[in-house]
Amino acid sequence: MKAILLDDNEMAKWDEFIMSTPGGAFSNLSGWRKVYDTYGFKSFPIAAINDTGIIRGVLPLFLMRDIFGKKFLVSNPFLSYGGLCAVDEKAKIALIQKAKETAIINHVEYLEIRQLADIVTDLPEKKDFVTMVLKLEKDENLIWNKALTSVARNRIRKAFKANLVVDFGRQYLHDFYRVFSVNMRDLGTPVFPISFFESIFEEFRDVVDLIVVKHQDVVIGAMLFIHFRNVCLDPWVSSLKNYNQFCPGDLLYWEAIKKALMQDAEYFDFGRSTINSGTYRFKKKWGAYPVQLNYQYFLNKACNIPVVNANNNKYQLAINIWKRLPLIIANTIGPRLIKYLPEL
Fold first, then answer.
1. Distance from C-alpha of 77 to C-alpha of 32, rounded to nearest angstrom
2. What is the CATH number that goes with domain 131-292?
3. Would you say which domain of life the source belongs to (predicted)?
């Protein structure tokens, strides 16, 4: 067993492995290499192959720099997980060794592998996050009556009483981005460029859709919806706070769950949260349960595992300033900054 860097013309084999291997995730797909070309991230598609040249494991890595120019490698910078995918321990060991060598050669501070499961190595790890997952019943009524709390049901009813309208389709990309960029500014977070989402639709057109909620023909909430294998997920979702009284976010999630059922998905992944945070409690009311995320590190030049805490005073100051920026300025500066902020 050995680990190598695959060439561009071998990416079809990479994706075939992801599609046929338990644990292969949307965030492991080779198309992310082109998506991250938006930022100029250099990619390192590491594959473990056996003596006959058959792929037995993969680990996608991307070379990034922080705002001070320090370099690091991360398995998927802007998604919660999607690191190592392998069929056995020999493949895992080979992938980790090659990843360490890649980190050393490129003089990075550290290597970060974001996992939905333990890699089972001696690498130090951080367990600050969970992803919230709903096991989907086959019957919509069972989810409504058993999974959802009364609070969630009442808020969905409120959305319907407000005559909110739901629609689907890529044609709403600019509406999605308008809502998303306002929400990110209000949260104090730099926004992705719209080209990032355009690239996602271009690379993953068969599994990506948009769900929107409209009030009087104006889009007030939107979700980027993904269906890959037996899982549906919503990596980016936003609604306008001026319309919170109509509960557009709750209606978005209910329609996403219904869409997942129609597509015969087994799970709906609500995304990353910290235990007992506001987003954690929101997702829990939908019947979602926490699944531990394991972020593991090879510390090359760094002495400690990196920590980004939004409650830290220095970050809180920046967040408060960002919230006050005019939208046109936030949308101009944000896409230039976000590539330095993989934790966000």
1. 10
2. 3.40.630.30
3. Bacteria
Residue whose token pair is 């409120």: 158
Cα–Cα distance between 242 and 240 in angstroms, integer? 5
pTM exceeding 0.85: yes
Residues of the chain with CATH 3.40.630.30: 2-126+294-333, 131-292
CB 213 within 8 A of CB 221: yes
Contact by Cβ (8 Å): 210, 173:
yes
Mention the CATH class of domain 2-126+294-333. alpha beta
Cα–Cα distance, 296 to 119 (Å, whole number): 8
**pLDDT tens-digit readout, 187-212:** 999 999 999 999 999 999 999 999 99
The first and second tokens of residue 53, run together, are 């040249």
Cβ-in-10-Å burial (0-12, 13-18, 19+) of 99 comes to buried
Rg (CA), the chain: 20
Q: Tens digit of pLDDT for each residue in 35-69?
A: 998 788 999 999 999 988 899 999 999 999 988 88
Cα 233 to Cα 307: distance, rounded to the nearest angstrom: 26
